[in-house]
């Protein structure tokens, strides 16, 4: 009895380690989270007062953020959403961050230290117009600092304290594009200047206290204007004429307007090319871009134009910055290979430089797009300058005293496509980690873990334990592991930059700004579309590195030239690129590879012709053998048509190209535009693995899943239902869903939802589809599931037929044979709006499926597929309960523990990517938006492995302790028996 009690106590003691330290010291073992802000559009420095030095920025991702100037960390940020574009930012009263957004319709004030919103004002107008924000420092109305806003045709004056509208002036009836608001020093009037009808200069003089229009003056310029007006002083501006060959100086004082026109050729000698007036605000001068050179033109007090200097290879110019009484400076950036030169000049003394510094940057950051400067006072009481630089790849750098203080990879906030790649195999005798632990460190680590088990560890000890676990996990190795957890995430950003992110710790292994996706003469507006696996060698082919294909176009039009770039995944090098090419409307990865593991791709152009890649004789011979079996479909949303296509023949005789193929239309499904509009489609992943086709039910019956990679889910709504939720009554709203075979165009299933509308988000997996929509009658979101089964194999339930081999399980399937299918469906209420949906996928397809739902709150929710079983009933039988069928409820449950992202938010969530690991129980999940989040999921728990942080040393100690305890108790027992015998 004593032996049993001792063994039980020892087992409980050894297992208590995992219970005590389940969460606190496992943070970061299986997931990582990174925060970004996107490409910076505007920046305002706040460094005057003592304390934290910060810069407030707004970005193209509609993010307003406050950054630490010392380290580049985020103090606070807010993501305003896709439909709330930030137009301008500024700082008012030294304590409020003012943002103007939604086309000049919403003005907000945020508390500068913590980012809390102080007030919000909605500004209404009559017509869309330019948005202007101005927060003058010396302009007051009734002791309130005022904020002036122009937007939607109205000029508003608001209080900085509470956002109340003091007055507003309607300028919408005037045919004018207001471009600047000006306050002459010492005056109680403001000027609103702009252009009307492209040739009329307009100026309005308005009383700042009550908004009364004091004077309106206008004057036409015979040559007309082009581009925006550049303001150089409180009473002077410069603009290009309509031909772009002359500069027009405009003087306006007390309602009197004067024009002075000068040919650019007379100002700047030996320069040819079209002129562009830069939007930078320079004190007393303008910057004119001509070719690759930048010319600075000074405006005198009399309004005359004088050329100051012409500097070659200038990439960016900052606005003017007043840094002392009567002095202001501005910064300009020049490129010289990998070197960037920063020069701070002042308009008062052009020949002298306030700052002249150079520093090196990674060549894969590209050119400088924007620069913002700020001054500070050095210890010797002289003025120093720092520069915030926005690069071509959307990264952000802070440069000071000739060095890069910090950098941020904010291009990762705009990922447009993701694929994965395996890491190289670890070779024998090669240590990749290059980290060796001495015996003392090994013992020290296990002693600390033992203290944690005994609950004797201090907070510092717990931090050390966590750090040791992260180091010993070996998750940051650059080689593949036997479980398939370590991979490379290959991401393509909107800037045309390709980066490889290690799944272990989220670090960037390499990054490459693709040359083919940079703006050039032949490609003015390049944009990336997607990434495809190009060459994936087997694990035994170590002499070949995997590579990916990046596809893009040179514009938004369907007939724009195409771009192809081939990238080595391990080295991060561009192997080759092809541009400009034929147009690219669709990319079809084919299930064929050549002798060096290159995957065949068929690129469909805007006219429906196919182009085969790689362009090799071997590829064309493989493709010719399968010429009649290549099908694809297209969805024409604008015309509400589905079309099926097939490769018909080689067009070598017509144009002499062996890799050019003609296609023909097989079928079409036309939805009447007056009754239905296509709003969503979904299909199965080509790489999805289905473990078994048979599904055994609780009554010992067998159903066979209808498994086809040619099925397409289509959702349509009535025309009135395409508007926003709540804008249509339930009686006029219908949602229709279809399951269509894309080879024959046959509609296998159709279902309608009366009183429902989109947006619709759907996922298709195996033989089922789940879709999310809004029910207008119930005023709630719903999720429905459709499962489709093959009735043609129902006769295979006879055991005798299976024994005698008379079944049809191995018979070939053909889409042209009319399928005998049945469907089962069910609908449930769901309490969340959805941004995106995905489904988990494992290596063998054995593990239970989970739906990964990106909620409107930018979190990822895991919902087990069992909750979306169409066979759920209110009172399931005992056999159904044993099978795992859950009793039917009208709503789907949401448990706090089901959030994959826990308490984190993936701001601006766009997509969820699931990647199967080699371990069947585990799925890798990557969610991206403005932020990045990665984790590992085990929907059916890790039934096939021990956890990564399992302590084998503690297990060994436990076994040794048990052996010693058994030996000691055996000796005690022998002695006791001997003593009893002697009695």
UniProtKB/TrEMBL annotation:
Keywords: Endoplasmic reticulum, Glycoprotein, Membrane, Signal, Transmembrane, Transmembrane helix. InterPro entries: Beta-prop_EMC1_1st, EMC1, EMC1_C, Quinoprotein_ADH-like_sf, WD40/YVTN_repeat-like_dom_sf. Coiled coil: none annotated. Residues 21-410 form the EMC1 first beta-propeller domain. It is found in: Endoplasmic reticulum membrane. This is ER membrane protein complex subunit 1. Residues 765-982 form the ER membrane protein complex subunit 1 C-terminal domain. Component of the ER membrane protein complex (EMC). It comes from the Eukaryota. It is a single-pass type I membrane protein. GO terms for cellular component: EMC complex. Residues 1-21 form the signal peptide. The keyword tRNA processing does not apply. The chain crosses the membrane at residues 950-973. GO terms for biological process: protein folding in endoplasmic reticulum. The keyword Endoplasmic reticulum applies. Belongs to the EMC1 family.
